[in-house]
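Minutes, project check-in

Agenda point 3 was the complex the collaborators sent over. CS summarized: four entities, 928 residues total, and the question is how they sit relative to each other. Sequences were read into the notes so everyone works from the same version.
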Amino acid sequence: MDNDINILLVSASPRRYGAVGFVEKFIIELGKEVEKININAINVYEYNIQPCLGCVSDDIKFCVLPCIIDDDMRNLYNIVLKSDGFIFVTPIYWYNVPGPLKNFIDRLTVLENAIFIEGRSKVEGKVAGFIAVGNDTGALAVIQNLMAIMNSFGITIPPWALAYHESEEDPVYNEKFVLDIANVLRCVVLMVKLLKGKIYHVEYWYRADTDYISTTMKIARRVYDMLLDEIN
Amino acid sequence: MDNDINILLVSASPRRYGAVGFVEKFIIELGKEVEKININAINVYEYNIQPCLGCVSDDIKFCVLPCIIDDDMRNLYNIVLKSDGFIFVTPIYWYNVPGPLKNFIDRLTVLENAIFIEGRSKVEGKVAGFIAVGNDTGALAVIQNLMAIMNSFGITIPPWALAYHESEEDPVYNEKFVLDIANVLRCVVLMVKLLKGKIYHVEYWYRADTDYISTTMKIARRVYDMLLDEIN
Amino acid sequence: MDNDINILLVSASPRRYGAVGFVEKFIIELGKEVEKININAINVYEYNIQPCLGCVSDDIKFCVLPCIIDDDMRNLYNIVLKSDGFIFVTPIYWYNVPGPLKNFIDRLTVLENAIFIEGRSKVEGKVAGFIAVGNDTGALAVIQNLMAIMNSFGITIPPWALAYHESEEDPVYNEKFVLDIANVLRCVVLMVKLLKGKIYHVEYWYRADTDYISTTMKIARRVYDMLLDEIN
Amino acid sequence: MDNDINILLVSASPRRYGAVGFVEKFIIELGKEVEKININAINVYEYNIQPCLGCVSDDIKFCVLPCIIDDDMRNLYNIVLKSDGFIFVTPIYWYNVPGPLKNFIDRLTVLENAIFIEGRSKVEGKVAGFIAVGNDTGALAVIQNLMAIMNSFGITIPPWALAYHESEEDPVYNEKFVLDIANVLRCVVLMVKLLKGKIYHVEYWYRADTDYISTTMKIARRVYDMLLDEIN
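CS then shared the predicted structure for the full assembly.
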């Protein structure tokens, strides 16, 4: 295990046994078995995250750490700051993220706003990937919005940083999606390694070779079976 | 006053004295003085609106009135159902609405989902307009998303249903914005009247004649002065 | 046939035998058999439509009819002006419309810009619906953008004005899509009738009753079979 | 001059003397004086770039180099392939790019589609930044869409890869915009250097120190004065 690579999986799911829950567990397993890293995971629905109060509009200097609101973000800020990369896993609620994930993102303003206080965004140079799942369309409307937001925070978006599943079918059966998830994690990790000087070159980013497909599909199916067992 | 036209102003502002607060009060005054209607206003920040739990993904039949969550939405649903039209007034938080407004929208799913239960969306045919204000860009990213969401609920979008202000300057000084706000309300009201059979024809929608500009600017300045007095 | 209702179908397809072609022919048939109207159809790929030159940025007064560019738009402007409603049928090219459709839209600026010349947009109060088809995701990113653009022209968006198909499967097999297409046309036509004073009330907008499903599916299958015959 | 860093500036402007033209010339000067690189620039309006015909929907294998269409893209593909990074500079035409830029992007599909032919996108790992200018709003709607498209091609988006100017005022007077443009170029170049193994570490990405502001503003004003001279 490479304990020097800190990836934070930020999911938003009121239904842990659903598609978002599957993706979350799949990524954690991919971390262990393929990328050889431990992945830290938080589900924004399980924390008390109050809405941003927009103090920055009163005076840009009001928006500093610790945020004026005393809730679970105080702890989550530390987790975010320690992380090198993020994977957002969101359900598609009306072509957009659900409210609790938006609250989490809005509250990150205090980290970005450091650029106006100390001259540098506290998340500058970190890396992010984006995964959206839903029964119906809207993934790209969600993902394009998240990309622009994160990039405005000073965050790097590595190649192939997006994956989506828009169907009522269980995501494990969507092989393109399974492979894309693995590659989102792979590309985020590669970019983190590059930025930390742990590697100096990336030969290729997206992997679609038979070995990789077979390994990732096997993990996906095992995670899915475990989840089925848990529900039954 | 025409008490047969029910317009609900849905704002989302943690800072009542800011730009959203101005727009809200301005619209209420426009209602009284120009459109001769009373406007009902709610600020989603002042209610207990819990996040949607996505029950619809478990079984589409689970998402029925009253929503499984017992919070202020129980009362707000009645207000929404009684309304003929909506004006959304939102701050721009990272090219998107703030979390509390997204929670409110997600919770409206129970009204739209009636199409799968009873064969008809409970908000079908209602009318909506959209106003976004911020210190920086992003208004159109917000508004285009809201339009597609509301239209997917079965809601009508009348001509010129959008207005935006993206500047640190007080919105009262943005004459284009002031005029656009008045026209958003005007067009929402005209469409409601048309759909309710109270008028049979709209000669023109957007008004930019001298009288109209002068009347609406006068109201805007008076509202602004009142707000300044309140703050000081 | 009601010759007083002019609906213009604007499609954008380099491949007439593909999904866009199917949707186009299906809507024309729905017009005849269900709505009892003739639908005028243009495919922007079959016209010489040069890109907008942005004269409006030099001087807002430069952008007047006839546009400075002498190409097929000169004729198309007349067709647009005579139309009461539009149905846009676009393929999804990278979460957006293809270039030729964007050129067509940009060139419509001359009609909208009349608001600054004569005080009124020449397309104000017309009605539009939006249909996007592709092998992959992106429909909502496309449709939300088109909605905001058209509404900024002063165009009305009736309830349920969107339909999409994101799959390699032939669209005729997507019953939800087939029904949504029929309802996009239905709602555009109803709104045009309301705005023209031909009806005073709409009892319900979206139809999903057995008769309607059966009628529209039958037409869809017949159109599909005809297209298969043409290809073979 | 570091001749090993190839940045391609892709602009889309029918009006060379306008805001896009200023940004283009400013970036070329920043390249020479600040980044010590030569920047290659193309304006899509000056080339014959026919619309994509969507062959990929007939058979994914049909979309290969050289594209079936024999036009200026044949040459532009080589320029794109030789480039390590791209800066897109686009006007905002109705919350979107103008048609000619969309045609250029759609035609790049042949490079991305190599992933299905040879197992790898021909633009994988390249870097992109995005600049949008207009008299009115819409920049973020444009930029978020471009980011998602380019990332789906396998392209890296470095920190702070966006800049926008939404005003009728000449962009040289928007100091935030001038600084953001310089940082878009800076971050694209830093990421290219990192990916090519020319540097192993980036101390900080966004620069807002007095020296940098003063240098970049000086260049911006000189470029602006030169353009004024050319017009007069």
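Noted in discussion: The CA atoms of residues 88 and 210 of chain B lie 27 Å apart.
Follow-up: revisit at the next meeting once the mutant set is ready.
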